[in-house]
Design goal:
Layout (H helix, E strand, L loop, with lengths): L20 E4 L2 H9 L11 E8 L6 E9 L4 E6 H4 L2 H4 L8 H6 L5 E3 L3 H11 L6 E3 H7 L13 H8 L4 H18 L17 H24 L2 H19 L43 H54 L1
Parallel strand pairs: 1-4, 2-5, 5-6
Antiparallel strand pairs: 2-3, 3-4
Helix pairs in contact: 5-10, 6-9, 7-9, 8-9
Keywords: Membrane, Transmembrane, Transmembrane helix
GO molecular function: 3'-5' exonuclease activity; nucleic acid binding
Organism: Thermothielavioides terrestris
């Protein structure tokens, strides 16, 4: 029998006419979905999550909650725009709600960069996520050297670089992503309001589903590269990200979003980032866009150059002070020598 992870080899492994994607937009559909979440395995995790919305954060709204259930090979697009709180409060036959699932520490949920998802869920629906494994932090921990663990990567970069996809799957993924961007990205003439269009446009339906479908493959890849110590660090950093996102001082577009959490580098807690000055220059994620990423790289380069210039300036000043001191000592010795000649 094949394992759940091996069944991800073919993203289109479904019956004819069934794309494996279910729109959950009624209370009965929520209850039926929850019935299918009972008794799922926890290793590897069974639940892979993502959210889409308009300005997704405490300052915006949630439109779609994407949930991929690995053992069932089903992806659910939960219509938060339509259902609102009913999406999280409707019970299954056993009385368990989606809120219960999300807040259960014993049920692992995989997110990629959980911060704004957690912020939106907590602010709008009072959900305190638990049992989170942040895939962005797993990718960070799976890198080969501590020097490379300075900034985090975005999901698109991880998929492009690491996802074990065939050439055909990679082309299909790029095509779906491009079609979605044209509809919702403002710089491409789109609008995030398209996530609230009902019925959901087919291109957006595919866009919402495809990234969460790839998460299990990335999880398996990064998990193989990590040891037990790094797994523990990732879980701790994931918990700290959730806690940080729930704080009153959390900034969804903060200046340090692209910086690695300190505890993944063996330093201080990630929550220390809350104390950083809000006036600091934002550093976008690596795949936030060509212009913003170039700006971030230029800013980082200028900072390094400035620091080097300052260090050299200190060295030169110390050298000049040493030379001046030697010159003064030489003058004093000459004067003393002359005074000795006069006295003799």
């Amino acid at each position: 029998m094949s394992s759940p992870m091996s069944r991800m080899t073919n993203l289109d492994d479904h019956a004819p006419g069934d794309d494996g994607i279910d729109m959950v937009d009624t209370e009965s559909a929520v209850s039926s979905m929850l019935d299918g979440l009972e008794g799922l395995p926890t290793n590897p995790p069974s639940l892979y999550c993502d959210l889409e919305g308009v300005n997704l954060s405490r300052y915006g709204s949630i439109s779609i909650f994407q949930l991929h259930v690995l053992p069932r090979n089903r992806t659910y697009l939960i219509d938060i725009y339509t259902l609102q709180n009913k999406a999280f409060s409707t019970p299954s036959k056993s009385g368990r709600t989606l809120k219960d699932v999300l807040e259960c520490a014993a049920t692992p949920k995989v997110f990629f960069d959980v911060r704004n998802d957690s912020d939106a869920l907590h602010s709008h629906f009072g959900i305190a996520l638990a049992g989170v494994q942040d895939l962005q932090l797993m990718e960070l921990a799976a890198r080969s050297s501590s020097y490379s663990r300075r900034v985090v990567n975005g999901l698109a970069r991880c998929i492009e670089r690491d996802a074990p996809l065939s050439a055909a799957e990679r082309r299909a993924w790029a095509a779906v992503k491009e079609a979605g961007l044209r509809l919702f990205a403002p710089e491409r003439g789109g609008s995030y309001a398209v996530f609230n269009a009902r019925p959901l446009p087919p291109a957006i339906r595919r866009y919402c589903a495809q990234d969460v479908l790839v998460l299990p493959r990335l999880w398996a890849l990064y998990d193989r590269r990590m040891g037990a110590a790094w797994r523990a660090r990732v879980l701790q950093a994931s918990r700290e990200r959730v806690a940080m996102s729930q704080a009153a001082t959390y900034n969804p577009w903060g200046s340090d979003r692209a910086l690695a959490p300190a505890n993944c580098l063996g330093g201080t807690s990630i929550t220390s980032s809350l104390k950083r000055p809000p006036s600091a220059m934002p550093i976008p994620a690596a795949d936030a866009g060509p212009s913003s990423f170039l700006l971030a790289k230029c800013g980082s380069t200028l900072f390094c150059i400035g620091r080097s210039v300052l260090l050299w300036a200190v060295v030169i000043v110390l050298f000049l002070l040493g030379a001046l001191r030697n010159r003064l000592f030489a003058v004093v010795r000459v004067r003393r020598a002359r005074e000795g000649v006069k006295n003799s």
